[in-house]
Amino acid sequence: MSAGSPQIASPAARLRAAQRLLSDNPAIALTFIFIALFVVTDIVNRAQSGKAFLTPTQVSTTFLYAAPLALLAAGQTLVMLTGGVDLSVATTATAGAFITSGTAQAQGTGTALLLALGLGFGIGLVNGIGVAIFRVNPLIMTLGISSVTLGALTIYSQKRFVALVPNIVNTLGSSRFLKYVPYDLLVWAPIAALIILGLRYSGFGRMIFAVGDNPVACRLAGVRVWQVLLLVYALSGAFSAVAGILLVGFNDAADLGIAAPFLLPSVAAVVIGGTSILGGSGGYGGTILGALILTVLDSLLTILNASQALKQILYGSIILALAWLYARTSSGD
Amino acid sequence: MTSSAALEARPRGGPSAGRLARRHGWTVGVYVLLLLLLLYWQTIPAHWGSFDVQLAIDALPLAFAAMAQSVVIISGGIDLSVGSLISLVNVVSAKYMIDMGFRNALLFGALLLLGSAAAGAFTGSLIVLTRVPDIVVTLAMLFVWAGLALEILQIPGGGAPAQYLQLGTGHWWSQWIPSGLVILLLAYAIFWLPLRWARPGLALYSIGSNRNAAYLSGVGVARTRIFAYALGGLFCGLAGLSLSATSGIGDPSAGQYYTLNSVAAAVLGGVLLIGGVGGLIGPIAAAFVVTLVKTILILKGVDQNWAQVIQGTLIIVVVMIGGLAIRQRRRT
Fold first, then answer.
1. B130 to A323: CB separation less than 8 angstroms, yes or no
2. Nearest C-alpha neighbor of A233 from the set A115, A69, A98, A80
3. Nearest-CA distance from A53 to chain B in Å?
4. How far apart are the C-alpha atoms of A211 and A226, rounded to whole Å?
């Protein structure tokens, strides 16, 4: 009934309404894109190999695969809300993966996990010190820390140590219970809930938005901006380490390139989710959908036999196109 | 001929020594640092016989990358796609030059320079058109260029005619003058010096230091920003071509090293990240300093990976000090 109503007759008005819907509530549009992409993948898969893709197992697999990416993108969301970006998330995750598999034998599983989390937090803290106290450009700081961490990991990986992925990490990263529920949801869901609720209801969460929106006004209002930034980067490091733990559980071994393919998608997921690159607006809900969309897109590209190179070009273009789109919709009204 | 002469020629009372020191103190400091490192380097016996040629070989692509980055930073932007554009030029040149004669290779190189300048102009146009921040656009382009490079050459390979390799690795006139260094200085003299003191160069500095003021005084801001990225692209092309000449092969991931290190060399060379401050002569010296630090560490028997960690840490410290310098400048 409403579809044929005269109020939205002209295409321009309809486009504007759609744009407003997208900018006000990206989750609706994103859910639609996610489902549409799933259906497209289903059609392509049926055409290519005669098998359906739209099955409960594939939906569950999508969530299983999306969890590490969504956790990397969790820290990225917080950092981007403050107007920065964290290019060390992938390397930090790799560090978490290495520490988990490298110390589990000697120290026990619990200590290994704590060490991995602590290392992630520490790396994030160093990023935070550079960005918050020394005012280094976040991109450069995190890129630099990333290259130093990677160098240190290379040295570590050449040493002799007994690599062992604990069973519980393995289960968390790759198994499911009740046939369809991935175990990594047990890690991801509480963190996601914490971030979404925390951003909305806690003072710290609101301060993240405020700092991203106008750091000068924040400082003048008495907010200790540097403390907010410090904690945000440290949290990003810790979430990345969690993602690394899930990844090492999934792959059953750590290698230096374990998380590298997730770096650009982590930024892309946040941008797709509607968080402004300039900071101050957005949220984690959109990022989750962004991570799910990218995971399905990755499956689709894999079915289509796209090379890693093509995927890279595509992700780069997606980021650019969406950043443009969101910049237009936000400056339009 | 350079800036100090121009300053001294000023009619009104002449500049104070303090101002001269403030303007050029940092650059002079970098050169003193370079000189000290060179002297120290000469005392390590392991390098005996290779003289300056090897250093010029290692530092040449980074010097060009630092020039590319500096031009963009001076204009008030930042270019994260420097490394992957270098990879792209490196890969394309190595893939096709291997079957060419020397003359054709040179011609092809000139074409590639035009192409990389066009690629830079494309990035700049995207930034101006979309109004998306420089950092985001160039981050996206980083992956686009890197993807293209990987598509063109999946694994390291290719090559170039021997005479072409000699351009980067040989020496001219006497064994003391590396040909790469001569080419570097020539490129500086041809592509930068004439611009620096003419309209486009002044426009570059003006949009970097205060975009609104520049716009209000009639500078074509959009045009100048695109020009800055195009010039950056040209220097990236030179970096990629010199990388092919010095390494002898094309490697789709070789450029990664230059993204961060070009920023570091620019900052160490006295270019402030807020834009509008600095020149290219400082970053060139800084590129040699950055390379020399790693070379010395390796000659001293430090493990290659440790050398990378130490070099990276030093770069972070340099950038942090640069950050403090900006805070200081804002305060005064």
1. yes
2. A80
3. 28
4. 10
With respect to residue B49, please indicate whether it lies within any of the assigned structural domains: no
Residue in B92, B139, B313, B321 to test binding to A, most A beta-carbons within 10 Å: B139
Residue A41 falls within a domain, yes or no?
no
pLDDT tens by residue, B217-267:
888 899 999 999 999 999 999 999 999 888 888 888 888 888 888 988 898
Residue A86 belongs to a domain with what CATH number?
1.10.3470
Does residue B293 sit within a domain? Answer: no
| B273: chain A residues, CB-CB within 8 Å | 137, 140
Confidence bin at B46 (pLDDT 50/70/90): low
Closest residue on chain B to A156 (Cα): B305
**Within-domain flag for B76:** yes
pLDDT < 70 regions, chain A: 1-9, 21-24, 160-162, 329-333
List CB contacts (< 8 A) between B319 and chain A: 130, 136-137, 140-141, 144
Q: Taking all residues of chain A, what is their mean pLDDT, rounded to a whole number?
A: 86
Q: Is A82 within 8 Å of A279 (Cβ atoms)?
A: yes
Q: What is the pLDDT of residue B66?
A: 94
Per-residue CA distances from A229 to A141, A199, A212, B109, B224 (Å): 13, 14, 10, 46, 34
**Distance from C-alpha of A211 to C-alpha of A138, rounded to nearest angstrom:** 14
Say how many Å lie between the first and final Cα of chain A, rounded.
Answer: 29
Tell me, what's the pLDDT at B52? 55
- How far, rounded to the nearest angstrom, does the alpha carbon of residue B296 sit from its chain's CA centroid? 21
Our CA-based measurement puts residue A312 at a distance from the nearest CA of chain B, in whole angstroms, of 5
**Interval B53-80 mean pLDDT:** 87
Which is more confident, B177 or B224? B224
The domain total for chain B is: 1
Q: Tell me which residue range forms the domain holding A287.
A: 56-323
How many domains, chain A?
Answer: 1
Name every chain B residue with its beta carbon within 8 A of the beta carbon of A158: 305
What the block records as the tokens of B322 is 């640069």
Contact A130 B323 (CB under 8 A): yes
B149 lies in some domain: yes
Contact between B41 and B58 under an 8 Å Cβ cutoff? The reply is: no
Backbone angles phi, psi at B218, to 5 degrees: 95, 10
Rounded Cα distance, B37 and B132, in Å: 41
Chain B contact for A322 (CB, 8 A cutoff): no
Q: What six digits make up the tokens of A327?
A: 């910049």
C-beta neighbour count of A267 within 10 angstroms: 27
Show the tokens assigned to B226. 């695109």
Task: Please indicate if any CB of chain B lies within 8 Å of the CB of A305.
Answer: no
So what's the pLDDT on residue B1? 39
